[in-house]
Amino acid sequence: MGSLYQHFEEAQKGSIEVGKLANFAVLSANPLTVDPMTIKDIEVIEVVETIKEGKSI
């Protein structure tokens, strides 16, 4: 958030909130909850959806 504040962008970016820009991917497995030894097995082809600036692409 520090660099966003520095560039006056903290109102548009930096956290997942209504009205803010967000780019993220929805994976088929949660890397925070799977066995750490299997994180490497979550491949790009398993991306379920990508959201860019509020739109599914």
What is the count of β-strands? 3
Helix content: under 10%
Compressed to H and E, one letter per element, the order equals HEEE
Strand order of the largest sheet: 1-2-3
* Tally of separate domains: 1
Q: Beta-strand level of the residues, as a percent range?
A: 15-25%
Largest sheet: 3 strands, antiparallel
Radius of gyration computed on alpha carbons = 15 Å
* Low-confidence regions: none
Broad shape = elongated
| SS summary, helix count | 1
User: Between the first and last Cα atoms, what is the distance in angstroms?
Assistant: 26 Å
Arithmetic mean pLDDT: 80
What does this structure look like?
With 57 residues, the protein is mostly beta strands. The chain has one domain. The protein is 9% helix and 23% strand. It contains one helix and three strands. It has one helix at 2-6, and strands at 23-27, 47-52, 55-56. The chain has a three-stranded antiparallel sheet with strand order 1-2-3, with no helix packed on it. Strand 2 (47-52) and strand 3 (55-56) form a beta hairpin. The model has no long low-confidence stretch (mean pLDDT 80).
